[in-house]
Write a sequence for this structure.
């Protein structure tokens, strides 16, 4: 949405904003619960933010992209404020929390559980304010980019709601499809985070980078079962209340694995906490379902209620009393640091093709700093929108011919349970391509992937043209 | 435990038919958990909407349970007959999926 707004502001008169979900309902932004990192506090600078980003990335960041995230991102946070997103205030400035890995309080938020929805709503209002220059179409799953004479001239898409095939000519195309965490059995993704954008980019001739770097959020909810709660819900609890991460013996353990002492705080970075929990489970000291305990039972009921009143009620409806019960948490696929390789203008190297947001690789190295994801989405979206407007204004492609790209969507294959194939993919990724990998595990995963590829066949199951055909959509994702 | 899901199926213009599925479940699982598992274990062609997974953030999984509007991600599976149908006040796409996109964000 930021890219569309910026493209329109830079003179693009016909911007098409496509989403395979309903606009603003799918994707990672709307699910973000809390923190957005930006150097907007007194005495803070993009340079300090950059130093923390590079350190969290373990020396493997594309530094030019990291710097862009910290600099352009800061401006975007201020612009979002002008657009009345409602960043929480403290005194004369923004309220900011200190997330693990930051040298100071640097994360703005709207409220403790609903930052993402507020961000999404604000951008959507701005998109609507732009008016006719931006046409919004939801439920359109782009399945291939059209490449003619070495440049991207548009795309082919499935109209999910009605089952039709759509072709789109474009002077510039931005891939802003998010990451790939739905490839894992346990993930904090929405249904559309299946790595579509990487496949589109790769097939169009762009390059991917750092694809091995998947971020596992260490304290994803594991047990008991909860309904209507995001699995990363314990993050805001830890910001506000600290809490204690414990093994089966009731001991704190992060220090044992190099994560430092938390002492009721929330300081250990995501990669080290994931490592500590995994090692503790391997050592036979995990919780019953194979994770760690997260306990707030040392806090008085009044403190819990003051911090999270309505959520305390939702937990009670799920049978959980935090003054009495610890919950089980374990690492869950959360974000992808790798992605499409771009320059600092978001150009992929394939003419007329750009990328933005989580789909871009490199800015966060091997481990993303808490709070950088939405900042990155803003910053890279804004840069990509500007660049796309410039490219489109410089001249349209000579013609548009989708050619054979629509053939796949019109084809009919034998019936197959593609949902079961997705589940098998997710299981093997969780078992063998998780946070810690071995050569033998990766080889085993590669052979399962080859089996799945063979079972998939050459055409999506069933006939084209059915409304909301999840079986065919799963097939296209698996491809 | 076992739920018996009676699910209304069909596309616009077809006579709606009710299909019965038996589904084993663990206490605490949501109706959405059940429907997603049903696609994996029994019938991948079943159509229903969801975007976020059980976070109650996307609000897409609205449907009728025993005639009342629910979010499938917050309603729990129960060891009984549970009748699921598409929203009655929205145009049907297929099975439990209805047209809920804002009119100016649809194709056409």
């Amino acid at each position: 949405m930021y890219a569309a707004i910026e493209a329109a502001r830079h003179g693009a008169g016909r911007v098409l904003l496509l989403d395979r979900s309903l606009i603003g309902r799918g994707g990672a932004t709307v699910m973000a619960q809390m923190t957005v990192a930006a150097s907007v506090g007194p005495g803070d600078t993009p340079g300090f933010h950059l130093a923390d980003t590079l350190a969290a990335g373990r020396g493997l960041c594309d530094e030019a992209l990291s710097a862009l995230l910290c600099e352009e991102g800061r401006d975007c946070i201020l612009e979002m404020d002008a657009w009345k997103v409602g960043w929480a205030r403290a005194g004369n400035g923004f309220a900011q929390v200190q997330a693990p890995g930051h040298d100071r309080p640097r994360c703005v938020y709207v409220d403790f559980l609903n930052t993402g929805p507020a961000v999404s709503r604000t951008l959507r209002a701005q998109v609507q304010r732009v008016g006719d220059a931006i046409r919004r179409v939801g439920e359109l799953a782009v399945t291939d980019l059209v490449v003619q004479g070495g440049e991207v001239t548009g795309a082919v898409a499935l109209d999910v709601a009605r089952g039709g095939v759509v072709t789109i000519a474009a002077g510039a195309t931005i891939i802003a499809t998010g990451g790939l965490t739905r490839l894992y059995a346990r993930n904090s993704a929405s249904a559309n985070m299946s790595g579509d954008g990487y496949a589109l980019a790769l097939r169009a001739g762009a390059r991917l980078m750092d694809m091995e770097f998947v971020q596992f959020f260490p304290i994803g909810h594991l047990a008991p079962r909860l309904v209507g709660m995001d699995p990363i819900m314990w993050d805001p609890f830890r910001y506000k209340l600290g809490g204690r991460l414990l093994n089966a013996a009731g001991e704190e353990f992060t220090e044992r694995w190099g994560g430092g002492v938390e002492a009721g705080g929330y300081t250990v970075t995501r990669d080290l906490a994931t490592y500590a929990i995994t090692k503790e489970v391997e050592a036979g000291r995990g919780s019953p379902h194979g994770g760690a305990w997260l306990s707030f039972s040392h806090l008085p009921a009044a403190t819990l209620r003051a911090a999270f009143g309505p959520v305390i009620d939702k937990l009670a409806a799920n049978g959980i009393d935090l003054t009495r019960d610890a919950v089980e948490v374990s690492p869950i696929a959360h974000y992808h640091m790798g992605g499409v390789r771009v320059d600092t203008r978001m150009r992929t190297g394939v003419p007329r093709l750009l990328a933005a947001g989580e789909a871009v690789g490199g800015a966060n190295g091997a481990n993303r700093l808490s709070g950088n994801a939405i900042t990155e989405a803003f910053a890279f979206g804004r840069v990509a929108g500007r660049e796309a407007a410039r490219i489109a204004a410089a001249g349209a492609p000579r013609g548009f011919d989708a050619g054979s790209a629509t053939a796949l969507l019109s084809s009919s294959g034998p019936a197959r349970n593609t949902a079961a194939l997705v589940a098998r993919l997710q299981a093997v990724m969780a078992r063998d391509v998780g946070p810690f990998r071995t050569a033998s595990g990766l080889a085993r995963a590669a052979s399962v992937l080859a089996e799945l590829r063979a079972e998939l066949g050459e055409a999506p199951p069933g006939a084209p043209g059915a409304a909301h055909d999840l079986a065919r959509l799963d097939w296209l994702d698996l491809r | 435990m076992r739920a018996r899901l009676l699910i209304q199926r069909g596309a616009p213009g077809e006579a709606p038919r009710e299909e019965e599925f038996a589904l084993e479940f663990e206490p605490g699982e949501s109706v959405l958990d059940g429907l997603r598992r049903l696609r994996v274990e029994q019938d991948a062609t079943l159509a229903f909407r969801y975007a976020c997974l059980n976070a109650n953030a996307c609000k897409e999984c609205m449907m009728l349970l025993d005639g009342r509007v629910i979010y499938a991600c917050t309603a729990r599976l129960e060891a009984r007959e549970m009748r699921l149908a598409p929203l009655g006040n929205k145009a049907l796409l297929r099975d439990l999926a209805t047209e809920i996109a804002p009119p100016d964000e649809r194709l056409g």
